[in-house]
Amino acid sequence: MDNVTTIATPEAARRHWRLPMAQLLPWLLPVTFLALWQLSVSSGLITSSLVPSPWAVFQDGVDLWQAGTLPTNISISLYRATVGFVIGGGLGFLLGLLNGLSKRSRALLDTPLQMLRNIPHLSLIPVVIILLGIGETAKISLVAIGVLFPIYINTYHGIANSDSELLEMGRSYGLSKWQLFSKIIFPGALPTILMGVRYGLGIMWTTLIVAETMSSNSGIGYMATNAQEFMDMKTVLLCIVLYALLGKLSDLIAKGLESTFLAWRTKGVTIND
């Protein structure tokens, strides 16, 4: 059999190069920052006793992981974040759905919810401590309150602003109320709802950081507060890095949900490659 020689076209070569670049580009600035940080500490431009190097922070993380301290506190923080998000997000979704579909419910509930939304939820910490103490319930409640309103407002906005022309067309075809909801209203609102989920995930971690610093004895926030008291800068920086990585993981999960549930949408237009 004759040998077949495949000649790569310039277009194919560009596509082959573009794929890894698209995957590596988001990490270019973080990796560059870490490299400059390590170089600055190693060269003496930054005092290692004041700001430890990334390698020292990594070694501290390995030591804490082997001791069992790090996985235990990460799992506790993930539990608090997940339970708070499910409770607050679920309630926000149901309220947004109800107020978006029902004018009576909207007239009754939307104004009080909008008033509560404008109160910074972290200002409720003294109230939560007085009512619920400083246990797990208080921390989870703070996370739930923080997550509730971003998901509520995005769900409500997506449902209430359904395309009137599509609804009229659906009615002309004799669709029932459930069919209008399942085929027109909810799919049209889904991009806005998922945007609320993505924003709520960010609020979730911000709230948890504060919640875990109030008289806590476990969690990543507790590790950072405890390390601060002993001037352990390596562990403080490690906790900051952990929150950043968990936040990035949450963002990837949100993007995955968008890719899964919004696959029917056409891709956005990119001006430049």
Question: How far apart, in Å, are the first and last alpha carbons?
Answer: 41 Å
Rg, please?
24 Å
Extract low-pLDDT stretches: none
Main sheet makeup: none
What form results from the Cα inertia axes? globular
Query: Mean pLDDT, rounded to whole units?
Result: 82
Structural class assignment: mainly alpha
User: Quick one: how many beta strands?
Assistant: 0
Binned strand content = under 5%
Give helix and strand order, one letter per element, not per position. Answer: HHHHHHHHHHH
> Helix fraction?
over 70%
Number of helices: 11
Please, could you describe this protein's structure?
- The protein has 273 residues and is mainly alpha-helical.
- The protein is built from 11 helices and no strands.
- The chain has helices spanning 10-24, 28-43, 54-67, 69-101, 103-117, 125-132, 136-160, 164-172, 177-211, 220-229, 233-261.
- The chain is globular and about 75 Å long.
- The two termini are 41 Å apart.
- The relative contact order is 0.10.
